[in-house]
Write a structure and sequence with these properties.
The complex is a heterotrimer of chains A (157), B (753) and C (285). By secondary structure, chain A is of the alpha+beta class. Chain A has helices at residues 22-29, 85-92, 102-115, 121-127, 139-156, and strands at 2-7, 10-15, 48-51, 54-57, 70-72. Chain C is built from 12 helices and 12 strands. Classes of the chains: A alpha+beta (157), B alpha+beta (753), C alpha+beta (285).
Chain lengths: 157, 753, 285
């Protein structure tokens, strides 16, 4: 079947199968391979994308459920030239080691900062509680998100 | 030493922008198509025999290319850790077995045109079993009367290390304890995956996110009887490893399918399969006896440790011996004995895991040290200070010299920063929540030198026509910063920005030999090789420049990408000189180096933890943490701190929540991330880092290892804090709420009596 | 496998009618956080799905004269963040905030949580404490009600007929009602509950409902502990009596179970949390 949806701001028609997960559609049909599969049960957050502005684990959503809706992956955050302030903060704080959890982590951070532009450290920890990272111990990630929030506020004002 | 430009600085990780943007392609990110997709069929029973294997339904499914069964096993057995023929580890591992020895043992596979079809078809294969009762308990497995469930193979493999007098003075204060450490899943976020195909010239190409490409080549060539130079193993980007991708894992299965079908094969595991069918940190039970005099001077230690290999030998015997070898390198102890027994059970195979036995043996010894300190009425820190090794001590068990061993500095400075003396005497309270502090010391190595395994590597290094530098090395970046660190060292010597140095990863057909990104050897061994080679290249390049310019070489130096003539004052770019050398001398500005380390000093660390325990629910929160490490010199302090944060995180999991447990039939109860509890952001404590940088001879710019040792003392530090705050003597990891409440109940009952 | 995606209740009823008529094996898909994982783990099951996540009437949270109606497909994020749920049914808001992670709370629905009927479902104990009932509708639009415990009585499968669906959760509005939810799991956040307690009580003595989750297939009412609490006697002795009553209830609920030694103690910690919260709220007035 063919569904229409908006992916990273562009309206797309995509051929899917009924059992296809949103994760499979993004990776295998649209080639958006930043979206990673780590646990297949919504537990690790590596496949986090935004669905109508809200962070979801794309391994627990059927592609057909995204019909008519809007999906944003990390490919939609930055242009070829410039990183998004959250990505830049991750770079500046060395919040990345193996990098496998990074896209999902950044999408959770993005969703958090959208609704909570000045989060406390505890709010940041809870904002990324559904994203597992085995390398960094989260501390540089929390620093990066705190810093990104600051940068985005300054940028906007 | 002149001030350094790049070493000792927070140089940005080489691939971080690619990773931040999500553009980096891990193996699973290659577009589907072009390869056949394989799905493993795993045993649902812990021990028994396949009596029927009916693939007819699967074979009828459209898109299924072939079903592999135990009949496709090549017959020869391999050992996933072995990399030279003299290594005596048992070769007991089949590719596809008809006698499964654990839940997750690999019986066969389905090859199909896409992943979904392979998944569905694998589920449609009907297999009949004759089940036998599994052997799950490692202490039972160690009993002499327990028969081996592995035909013709020993049930126990023993090793011993001892030195000094066996006798104990009559007035010694003695502590005896039994400490248990659990089986742990590595938890790399990227699941296991591999691709294999036949290339032009009959070369088997295997691409894999691995830590030891040359070991993969060894095992595959040996197992399939292919000339070594016809097996090409290429390392791909790794989404976390932690030792879980050190031993050969699914490469034999993937290669076998490619060899048998001639098709390019991608074999990908999901999380449950990765937990069930790869490797784990070995569980252990350590009986320990420590004797000290009344002042707290250690007199003797005896350790009898059982290490659970799981169903196959893998590298667990090495892990067990590595545990023993750590025990003579932390404290000055006049006499000691270590007896280790590797035993087999019908559980997931163990193998390498960050620390290679160090976290286990240090949990055993450091928890026991605190219990003895309590008995001696001594401050655990003061007790350790009386006994810790000094710089330049030797290893009484005959291991390599300890080098500039700065553990005492770590402890003394850590006590001050953590305010140990002040915090230790604060009462833990009498209410529901109890606060306490604890610490643990540790040591780890810097490579294989002095072990049965040879440690050496080679590298090539050359300037390109634009003055950039290419380092051709068989390295493995795992996210730990290997390539960045090596690049910094080269940049420092050749005086050019690190981003102009490109460091390669392992490709067994094109890069020189290296053992692997294992054994905490990269900084100390590979870094030293890079340093020495960069100096050799610098000298050759300056000589070539001198000949081209017809001046004395001693007038020339390298400065920020330019060759500078101290008399004439001219500056010529590296690239320009490389081109002139090519044209005028017909030479490449390149060098090659064979490097072998002649030492294997010890790295050290002390961790301090503060915990808050809820005595009603049994939950523990780590409320403050300080990690102090003797690193010789931090090549990249920011990357180094990153290693420590991650090491602490894994250690907190080992201390409090991570555990692979099995039901009575040997079925894992935690074969998914919702049941296997790794630490997430809300449970991660703030971590302070304090570095002792006194320089290690033989290391690049004085640097030594950090990546493994930083996870070693975490569990005992936290355990000691909890025991101190509760007055308990818990020795079984992890300290789950269930165990904490059980210990508190037991203590109440004892007190009531 | 076929997936129907009705966008309103009328379309949903059409789909259900045709599914029952054939008949074919159908599963209702709400948030998908449990069902899709379950289906993926069992490739031999591939039921047709009826996706409820687009049915707009099922997503509303509305306040009526004497009750609140929470659509079955309201997500935990919606419930957690709804000011009136927070004000009138804080135990439910709290439980919703402790379900999974933000990603799961953005997808997971209260109806799905009930229909999946896991003993560890965090929404059940507060719903029992808050005297909720479930509004069930069938393909013809006929309505009936069930208690949450009835739906949860069979773990992993619900007690609805093939043409029925949960329309909404109905919560009676009581004046001066306080409610609390506490749980303990293997981790501070994102943890399957090992044990949970939900308490609802009025300012004045006379109304107390206390339920424990993760002890059995459906929440267990702790009546003896309720009676102790209803004394509104905040002395140390009564506190101990309250905790003893909780332990006693756990002992009666799961005799001989391997988890009993832990749960009979851990319930005291959760009970202590509730005690402190209730005492503070009531003495604040």
């Amino acid at each position: 079947m063919i569904i229409e949806l908006t992916v990273n701001g562009t309206l797309r028609s995509v051929e899917i199968t009924p059992s296809m997960r949103l994760l499979d559609m993004l990776r295998n049909v649209l080639g958006l391979t930043s979206v990673k599969e780590g646990c297949s049960e919504g537990e690790c957050g590596a496949c986090t994308v935004l669905l109508d502005g809200k962070a979801v684990t794309s391994c627990t959503v059927l592609a057909v459920q995204a019909r008519g809706r809007s999906v944003v992956t990390i490919e939609g955050l930055s242009s070829d030239e410039a990183l998004h302030p959250i990505q830049q903060a991750f770079v500046d704080h060395d919040a990345i080691q193996c990098g496998f959890c990074t896209p999902g982590m950044i999408m959770s951070a993005y969703a958090l900062l959208k609704h909570t532009p000045s989060p406390t450290r505890e709010e940041i920890q809870r904002g990324i509680e559904g994203n597992l990272c085995r390398c960094t111990g989260y501390l540089p990630i929390i620093d990066a998100i705190e810093d990104a929030a600051r940068r985005m506020r300054t940028h906007e004002s | 030493m002149a001030e350094l430009k790049y070493v000792g600085r927070d140089v940005q990780r080489n691939d971080i922008v690619e990773k931040a943007s999500g553009r980096i392609k891990y193996m699973g990110d290659r577009m589907q198509g072009g390869a056949a997709h394989a799905r493993l069929i795993l045993s649902p029973i812990a021990r028994g025999r396949v009596v029927s294997f009916d693939a007819s339904e699967a074979e009828r499914m459209p898109g299924v290319l072939r079903v592999f069964s135990p009949k496709d096993d090549p017959g020869k057995r391999f050992n996933s850790a072995l990399f030279l023929p003299d290594q005596t580890d048992l070769q007991d591992h089949p590719v596809f077995t008809d006698k499964p020895l654990f839940v997750g043992d690999i019986l066969g596979a389905v090859l199909a045109k896409d992943e979904e079809t392979a998944r569905a078809a694998a589920a449609a294969v009907k297999i009949g079993f004759e089940e036998e009762a599994p052997l799950l308990d490692m202490e039972q497995a160690a009993l002499p009367q327990t028969p081996s469930f592995r035909e013709g193979m020993p049930q126990v493999v023993e090793g011993k290390i001892a030195y000094g007098e066996e006798s104990l003075p009559g007035d010694a204060i003695i502590l005896e304890s039994v400490v248990r450490t659990q089986k742990i899943h590595h938890g790399a976020m990227e699941n296991h995956i591999c691709e294999a195909r036949m290339e032009y010239g009959g070369v088997l190409l295997v691409e894999t996110p691995c830590q030891m490409a040359f070991t993969v080549r060894y095992v595959l060539a040996d197992l399939f009887g292919i000339p070594f130079n016809k097996v090409r193993v290429v390392k791909t980007p790794v989404g976390g490893a932690f030792g879980g991708k050190q031993e050969v894992g699914i490469e034999p299965h993937c290669a076998l399918m490619a060899l048998k079908t001639g098709l390019p094969v991608r074999l990908a595991l999901d999380r449950t399969q990765t937990i069930l069918a790869t490797r784990t940190r070995a569980a252990s039970v350590g009986r320990i006896l420590i004797a000290a005099d009344r002042e707290g001077n250690l007199l003797r230690r005896e350790m009898d440790v059982i290490v659970d290999a799981g169903a196959y030998a893998t590298g667990t015997q090495r892990v067990m011996m590595a545990m023993g070898k750590k025990t003579s390198r932390l404290y000055r102890i006049p006499s000691q004995s270590f007896r280790g027994r590797t035993v087999f059970t019908n559980t997931t195979p163990a193998g390498a895991c960050r620390g290679y036995g160090s976290p286990q043996i240090h949990a055993i010894t450091e928890i026991a040290m605190d219990l003895l300190a309590r008995k001696l009425l001594l401050d655990p820190a003061e007790f350790r200070l009386k006994n810790l090794v000094h710089p330049w001590d030797t290893d009484p068990a005959g291991g390599p010299a300890l080098g500039n061993a700065r553990i005492r500095d770590c402890l003394v400075r850590g006590m001050e920063v953590f305010r140990w003396n002040e915090r230790r005497v604060i009462p833990s309270g009498t209410g529901r929540f109890r606060r306490g502090v604890g610490l643990a010391c540790c040591t780890h190595g810097n490579g294989y030198f002095g072990s049965p395994y040879p440690d050496f590597m080679s590298m090539a290094m050359r300037f390109c026509e634009d003055g950039t530098v290419l380092v051709n090395a068989g390295l493995q970046e795992l996210g730990n910063g290997t390539l960045t660190t090596i690049g910094q060292i080269v940049a420092e010597v050749l005086d050019l920005p690190p981003e102009r140095v490109e460091v390669s990863e392992s490709d067994t057909s094109t890069t020189p030999f290296d053992v692997g990104c294992v054994a905490s050897r990269v900084t100390y061994v590979c870094g030293s090789c890079a340093l020495e080679l960069a100096e050799k290249l610098k000298s050759r390049f300056l000589g070539q420049c001198a000949r081209v310019l017809a001046v004395d070489a001693h007038r020339l130096s390298l400065k920020n990408g330019n060759v500078v003539d101290s008399e004439e004052g001219g500056r010529r770019s590296y690239g320009g000189m490389v081109c002139r050398i090519a044209k005028e001398l017909r030479e490449e500005a390149g060098e090659y180096l064979h490097y072998k380390p002649e030492a294997n000093p010890a790295s050290y660390g002390v961790h301090f933890a503060e915990t808050l325990t809820d005595t009603l629910t049994g939950t523990v929160e780590v409320t403050d943490y300080l990690a102090v490490h003797d690193v010789g010199r931090a090549i990249n302090p920011r990357l180094l701190r990153g290693q420590i944060y991650g090491g602490v995180q894994m250690g907190v999991g080992m201390a409090l929540s991570e555990e692979l447990v099995y039901d009575s039939k040997g079925r894992p109860k935690s074969a998914s991330l919702s049941r296997y509890t790794m630490i997430n952001a809300p449970s991660m404590p703030k971590v302070g880092v304090l570095l002792v940088e006194e320089g290690e001879p033989g290391g690049p710019f004085g640097g030594k290892s950090i990546g493994e040792i930083c996870t070693v003392p975490v569990a005992p530090a936290i355990a000691n804090a909890v025991n101190a705050s509760l007055g308990t003597m818990m020795t079984e990891l992890p300290f789950t709420p269930e165990r904490i409440l059980a210990a508190l109940s037991a203590r109440r009952e004892t007190n009531a009596r | 496998m076929r997936v129907d995606t009705p966008s309103n209740v009328s379309e949903l009823r059409d789909v259900l009618r045709s599914a029952v008529a054939v008949p074919r094996k159908c599963s209702l898909l709400a948030g998908g956080t449990d069902l899709l994982v379950h289906l993926r783990a069992s490739p031999d099951l591939s039921p047709d799905l009826i996706d409820l996540s687009g049915v707009k009437e099922l997503k509303n949270i509305e306040i009526h004269r004497d009750h609140m109606e929470i659509g079955a497909c309201a997500t935990f994020s919606q419930i957690e963040g709804h000011p009136l749920v927070q004000e009138r049914f804080s135990a439910l808001a709290r439980a919703a905030s402790l379900v999974g992670s933000p990603q799961i709370r953005n997808l997971g629905t209260i109806g799905g949580n009930l229909a999946n009927a896991s003993p560890a479902a965090d929404s059940l104990p507060p719903l029992c404490a808050l005297e909720a009932s479930l509004l069930i509708e069938n393909a013809e639009g006929a309505q009936s009600t069930l208690s949450p415990a009835q739906v949860a009585s069979a773990p992993g499968k619900d007690s609805l007929h093939a043409d029925q669906y949960i329309r909404a959760v109905l919560l009676p509005l009581r004046e001066n009602l306080l409610s609390f939810f506490v749980k303990t799991g293997s981790r501070k956040a994102v943890a399957i509950s090992k044990l949970s307690l939900a308490l609802a009580l009025s300012f004045e003595p006379g109304h107390v409902r206390l339920f424990a989750g993760s002890l059995g297939t459906s929440p267990i009412r702790m009546e003896a502990a309720e009676a102790v609490l209803d004394r509104r006697d905040w002395t140390e002795a009564n506190h101990t009596a309250f905790l003893d009553a909780l332990s006693g209830a756990v002992e009666r609920a799961i005799p001989g179970r391997a988890s009993l030694p832990f749960k009979r103690l851990a319930v005291r910690g959760l009970g202590d949390d509730l005690w402190t919260a209730a005492k503070e709220a009531i003495s604040r007035g």
